[in-house]
Amino acid sequence: MAAIEKHQVVIVCGETGSGKTTQLPKIALALGRGKCNAKPGQKGQLIGHTQPRRIAASSVAKRIAEELKTPLGEVVGYKVRFQDRLSRDASVKLMTDGILLAETQTDPLLKNYDTLIIDEAHERSLNIDFLLGYIRQILPRRPDLKVIVTSATIDADRFAKHFESAKGPAPVIMVSGRTFPVEQRYRPFEDSRDYGLNEAIADGVDELWQGNAGGDILIFLPGEREIREAADHLRKHLSHQPVMRNAEVLPLFARLSQAEQDRIFDGHTGRRIVLATNVAETSLTVPGIRYVIDAGTARVKRYSFRSKVEQLLVEPISQAAANQRAGRCGRVANGICIRLYDEADFNSRPRFTDPEILRSSLAGVILRMKSLHLGDVAQFPFIEAPSGRAIADGYQLLSELGAVDDANELTPMGVELSKLPLDPRVGRMILEARERRALDEVLVIASALSVQDVRDRPLEAQQQADQAHAKFDDEKSEFSGYLKLWKWINEARGGAPSLPSARAQKAMALKKAPSQAILPVGQRVAAPAAATAATPEVAPTHKLSNRQYEALLRQNFISIRRLREWRDIHTQLLTVVTEHGWRINTQPASYEQIHLSMLAGLLGNVGCKSDEDDWYLGARGIKFYKHPGAHLNKKPGRWIVAAELVETTRLFGRGIAAIEPQWIEQIGGHLLKKQMLDPHWEKKAAQVTALERATLYGIVIYNNRRVDFGKVDPHGARDIFLREALVQGEWETRLPFLAANQKLIAKVEELEHKSRRQDVLVDDELIYAFYDQQVPQDVCSGASFERWYKDASRANPELLKLTRDELMRHEAAGITTSAFPKTVRLGGVDCTASYLHEPGDARDGITVTVPLFVLNQVSEERCEWLVPGMLKDKIQALLKSLPQRPRSRFVPLPESATRLAELFTAPERFGSGSLTDALLKQVRDETSLDVKRADFKLDMLSPHLFMNFRVVDEHGRQLGHGRNLGALKAEWGAKARGAFQALAGLKLGGQSGSEQKTAPAPEGKAQAAIKNVAKNAPAPASAPAAPAGQRYTTWTFGELPELMEIKKGGQTLVGFPALIDGGDAVTIEVFDEPEVAATKHRAGLRRLFALQIKDALKYLEKNIPDLQKMAVAYMPLGTQEELRAQIIDVALDRAFLLDPLPTDEAAFKRRVEEGRGRLTLIANEVARLAGTILIEYAAAARKLKDTKNAPDATADVAQQLQRLMPKQFIAQAPWAQLAHFPRYLKAITLRLDKYRADPARDAAKLAELRPQEQRYWRLVAERKGAVDARMQELRWLLEELRVSFFAQELRTPQPVSVKRLDKLWAQVNS
Predict the structure, then answer these.
(1) DSSP assignment, residue 727?
(2) pTM exceeding 0.70
């Protein structure tokens, strides 16, 4: 008492159970403080006594009143949130520290109090730290105020130094007075699969109650889940022990209903185990507790400055907290505290729990300090000052809410927020709801978020509770669920319709309009009125009494106490709204109005659903999940907002509601970080457009939104406008200067491509500078440019027009039309030519557009010459590819190439024959060296020195392109032939008399491309005087010329007529390729000869010698009829189709008479040769079948036989070559005979042969079977090489070796 009288601040430290909580108010009364000790005529002051929890404040007030033997409220009373048991003349006021802190707004110097007792100061809650700092500031202005700071586990030195004055640190008084000692037992355990926390607790219970010892046990666990699991385990464990099976196991945590909490403090007779969180750690005295089991952990709320979320993490408790837990026992008898960890672990823990101010968001503290004008938060005298990061985080949240400006000063929004007794986030929601006319609904939701959920889930009836609560669940929003719950609570008492059950709501949803939550945004506003109109009026129900109403709430698992708190907060908020004169909306707010208001305070809790998994991406890259206990009956959607983010086993979002992403932009536009990506010119819009990307704390709100870049960056937009629209011409406008400039630029560019020089046209930068100098700085779009140009061009009509001199760096000499013609004559048709200088591009060089119908008539030799202007470069490249000796004769190459180009561009030489052959002859003549064609390395030439072909159909559509004319012919030759014949009209029109009819030719670009027939073609004859498609059995169609000229609609085509085999007759068709025409004509002419000698052929078919014997050997290849047909066809060819072929009726008849007599002899000769070949073939096939253990050799032989002996081998093989077939087949048999004696030699020769064959057959495949004379020669030399390698004794008609084949291969590829 002396210390309190002498000093303004006293620090009291006492053990748990020493009685300081109840004795200090009595001491203050004894010292003459409090209203009851006031002098007459003076207004007395209160003794304020704070407790950290409401239940502690009320229970301590009752104990002191009992000890003073006065009614509660008369001398000693309490005031907590929603409850006030304090009379006007009371002297001692028990309250929570939050109540005292709230009074600082109306009583800044706390003049209502002459004594303040701050109890349980060790908890260092945010309110306590703020109060202690605030009290220290006002102490100099309140010298009469006495302050007593007390706790059992306080850091006395820190508190004493905090209240240091001129007299020195505040005095520290140590108080003792425990009645019974407490024994500490350490029982650490190792968590394993078979033994965990619950088993350790059960062993602890057995240890404490062994020997039938009495007394209740208080067990501290970190959370509700652990309490439920431990309770289930203990009940099962105790059920097997006769003495302890009747022990009562009760939970104790903050979310318990009032009835369950009262049950803890009621008297009892049997054994009891209370499982509690840290709510029972201080202030609360659970009666009858003799033993404590401490798990050593607790859920501690920590605010993550990185992720901006509250984390409820299970952490080891401090030494002070452990001592507080131990102090809960030993009040009725000697106590025992079992700690489920070892003593070393205890000693290594921090002495005191981290103060809440170091692990909480400071936004509310900063807002309150700003409103009370307490100065800078960094200078405020906290016991432990928060870090700069925590202060910055608080300001960031206030900035997010719009409560502070860039200078961290309160905005009008911040001033209004400071007047609301709520979390700043909730206050921001209410202010937004005021503007959006959703106050009525948001006040309900805001008050619900300020208390624990009123919906109870008792451990023994969780399923029933969930079923009862289902009718309050909404489809997309838990906020809407609060409104449903509020409506049901208000209507359930009677006098108004009540909310239907969840099942009834679903049935109604199927029949009527969908819920607001799932409606499109545009329809949500109108939906409430429509739904109201559609709902039939329901008659009021009878009003229930209080008892009936409470029974109904319990039946629906609604906590009456928490409901009272919800209503009280709602009433307080309603009072604040009324005091400010804010109007409550009378019309129901839409889903959008409500959730826009909620979103205003929860912008940091927005989430976007992941595409892969069930988590949401939140602010600053965090990932959170929907809370498993969310009151939703459907998945919320892609975009959500959460009332809070809490981390337990994982990060969960509580209070989930579906939102639209555009709402975020509407509410949080000031927080969006916008990026302008890819600014580019858009021809259609005639403006520079950028793609805007907006993020909120890293979450992409929208992406690729097209915006006018001119409004964001006019200077940058102008630069892009000048470069793209004016310099590049990417703008469709009627302004005359731009079209004129582009046309002039195109002409200069064409000169560049033809000359293959890039220094003719001036650089784009010079053209840009031309426009930049004349166009005003504020012009950055098509519209603004046209407005300026309209006025400026009146004074200067030639404004912005470029001249040729301004565009060209120098004159492009030698670029003439004759050197670079616009058309090139190919196949008798003038084909359009275009030029491009773009190395690496597929169109680099000259590209000729070839109509499909003329493709087969294009000469590869003519295409080698390109055009006169490119000849010099190609000759120089060819000379450069020569070996060193001949190349040295032409040094310097550029001058020699120029000389030769002038020589070859003479009209009589240009385009005549092959350029390579012409240059080869010239090189030989000038050097007298034996230069080979293969010495010209064509593969060393640049691609632009080969003509590029673009094949188009009659409509100008591109069919194919490339520089390989042979490949294009192989791919499109058949269609080209059909197009030619269709264009010629021989398949569509007809012929009559001696003159050709003019058949209607198809119109199109192809027809326009035809100019004249080929220059070097023989003089054409008139067409046969017969209708197209007419069938002939004898030569009655006059003379058949080698080629013919057909005129169609002013176009002249050159075709090659041929007889076509029709089986029992022949027809006449015209082809565009002489080779194809010759092949078809031979078959047709053979058929016509056969029709003249039918009787002789019948005799021959029946009298072919040894046909049946040959057919047996031929069976693997085909039938006897197919063999007979081949023999007769070859005999006919040998008898009648020797060159020259007949071209008129007289020659034809002479040939018939000449061949008739020798046909039988020739047929017998062919049959004998075929028989010999088939005998050798059968022998080779048998030998191949009998050869074993030679996989490489047999595979090679099988492939050789397949290629050598196809079904039509007699007809397909040249007659001169067919005579060698028996030797080739005999060589196969000999090879297989020799293989067993020397397989290594066979393998070596095969390895030498295989590359030769592979490259040949690969070339055949590339040319799609088109084989010329050189390739034919190479083909049979490969067979001779086989004879030389594997059966040398059979000899070859000419020397053959790999080296000879390589030389021939070089010629084939030359």
Answers:
(1) I
(2) no
